[in-house]
Write a sequence for this structure.
């Protein structure tokens, strides 16, 4: 059986006061966290998709800034890596919240989404944050200049 084509997706990296804004999710193993964002629709720019997804998931308008990373996010159904459950080509953008509004679950939350929270960057390594390969990159953003950081990460999990 041929595998499906990669799905284009966009993700928001929103940092304030050494905290990262994430979606709080629940599955059978408990609480985990993901960055806001999702699939890009046909004829929608990446910025438009990210603004729509953030409005749906965190209930706020965002300003889309610099492209940080591109990655192939591939999750396998089995350990033999013959069939994939998910393949998204993801573009990660630095984003900013307009004004002083408080993020909250939007009107179209993701399946399994139970909240929106600010996580201290120092605590990220102790938490279930996906994709896990982003943890060291997110820690570097705390002190790094975010302009001209765009890079292709290859396959992440």
């Amino acid at each position: 059986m041929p595998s499906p084509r990669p799905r284009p997706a966009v993700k928001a990296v929103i940092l304030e006061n050494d905290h990262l804004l994430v979606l709080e999710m629940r599955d059978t193993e408990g609480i985990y966290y993901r960055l806001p964002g999702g699939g890009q629709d046909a004829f929608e720019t990446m910025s438009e998709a990210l603004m729509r997804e953030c409005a749906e998931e965190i209930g706020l308008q965002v300003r889309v800034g610099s492209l940080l990373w591109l990655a192939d996010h591939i999750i396998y159904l089995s350990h033999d890596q013959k069939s994939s459950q998910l393949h998204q080509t993801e573009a990660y953008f630095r984003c900013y919240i307009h004004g002083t509004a408080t993020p909250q679950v939007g009107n179209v939350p993701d399946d399994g989404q139970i909240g929106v929270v600010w996580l201290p960057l120092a605590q990220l390594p102790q938490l279930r944050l996906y994709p896990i390969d982003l943890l060291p990159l997110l820690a570097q953003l705390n002190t790094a200049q975010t302009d001209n950081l765009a890079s292709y990460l290859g396959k992440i999990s």
Remarks:
- Residues 7-150 form a domain with the Nucleoside Triphosphate Pyrophosphohydrolase fold (CATH 3.90.79.10).
- The first strand starts at residue 7 and ends at 13.
- The chain has a mean pLDDT of 85.
- The CA atoms of residues 35 and 48 lie 17 Å apart.
